[in-house]
Design a protein that fits this description.
Elements (H helix, E strand, L loop, with lengths): L11 E3 L4 E3 L1 H18 L13 E6 L4 H14 L5 E9 L6 H15 L2 E6 H5 L3 H7 L6 H19 L4 E3 L4 H13 L3 H6 L1 E2 L4 E2 L11 E2 L7 H10 L15 H16 L3 H22 L10 E2 L6 E2 L5 H11 L1
Parallel strand pairs: 3-4, 3-6, 4-5, 6-9
Antiparallel strand pairs: 1-2, 7-8, 10-11
Helix pairs in contact: 1-9, 2-9, 7-10, 7-11
Length: about 325
């Protein structure tokens, strides 16, 4: 099959649009959509100048999503004096997994001449995810612990590095899965909490972070297209599932969406379009009821000083529970 834009062989077919694209036009398409999302979410404010630059901290895990995001951001803003970028890698302490992905992070950062910082669970919490999984004091999936720890460190170090925004590599599939999970669970409060009206972005499930705005420039790009882009561009991505990944419900939703998308192309895009409207409505309802601004109820965690709605933040409670076993 030929590319719709030239006579070269197509490397991908987007069933949701009917398009066939060669390597060059496919990569251009991905980059165009990412840059359009950056514009639509107003990630570069008018106030940004060489004298008053934006500082973007990018969550770089070494997986395909974060590697592609970092590569496109560097290509777009590398010579823009209004934007300073820092790659931040969180090492969870998963033997045989994170070390390999860390190598990919280091290679990419060196190739791009990008500032790269590495933070570890062991240094910060005196624990490794391998030990957490073995002890499992709360009888939870590994991802539940890891998500709390990771969000805490991303927020902590984004603030420490003076970030004006925290960027993560969540793709369209990730976002559609989260949206559908919230809807199926009837969690209207979570829908409202995950909508950031200023950026139109959605945070991960869990404790919300109101301090440094989060953005997800890949959220219009399907997961398979992200993987293909990494392959075509020969990026040093570590494409392997975490050995502790065990979110059964998300896995069921993932398979459901894959089946729906196969039978009804465009399902993921439709879910996100509808979810954005629902989230905006829900967020407005909670604001009108005086329940939407959780910042007014924030206090400092008595253990670590992090902002929380509790006396002791969720992260500290989990760390204490693990260390008590």
């Amino acid at each position: 099959m030929e590319c719709d834009k030239c006579d070269r062989d197509a490397v991908m077919h987007a069933a949701y649009s009917g398009g066939h694209l060669c390597e060059d036009h496919f990569c251009q398409s991905v980059e165009k959509r990412v840059r359009r999302r950056i514009r639509e979410d107003s990630l570069v404010p008018r106030s940004a100048t060489p004298e008053n630059p934006e500082t973007w901290v990018i969550g770089l895990s070494g997986g395909k999503d974060s590697v592609v995001l970092t590569s496109i951001l560097d290509e777009t803003f590398n010579n823009d004096p209004r934007i300073e970028m820092i790659a931040l890698t969180i090492h969870e302490g998963i033997e045989g997994y994170r070390d390999a992905s860390l190598d990919a992070c280091v290679e990419l950062a060196e190739d791009l001449d990008l500032r790269h910082e590495v933070v570890t669970y062991e240094d910060e919490f005196d624990l490794k995810m391998d030990d957490v999984v073995e002890k499992d004091p709360e009888n939870m999936a590994a991802c539940a612990y890891c998500g709390v720890f990771r969000r805490d460190l991303l927020s902590k170090y984004a603030e420490e590095y003076g970030a004006t925004k925290l960027l993560t590599g969540h793709n369209l599939d990730d976002e559609a899965q989260t949206a559908l999970m919230n809807i199926l669970e009837g969690d209207v409060r979570q829908v409202a909490k995950h909508f950031d009206a200023s950026l139109g972005s959605f945070d991960e499930r869990g404790d919300s972070d109101h301090f440094i705005p989060r953005a997800k420039p890949l959220r219009d790009i399907p997961e398979k297209e992200v993987a293909l882009y990494a392959h075509v561009k020969n990026l040093p991505a570590h494409i392997t599932e975490c050995p502790h990944s065990s979110e059964a419900f998300r896995g069921e939703i993932q398979q459901l969406l894959l089946n729906l998308e196969s039978n009804h192309p465009g399902t993921r895009h439709s879910i996100m379009a509808g979810y954005e409207e629902l989230a905006a409505i829900a967020a407005n309802e909670y604001r009108e009821d005086g329940e939407g601004d959780e910042q007014t109820n924030l206090v400092e965690c008595e253990r670590c000083g992090a902002a929380t709605t509790r006396t002791v933040c969720r992260k500290c409670k989990l760390v204490e529970a693990v260390n008590a076993v």
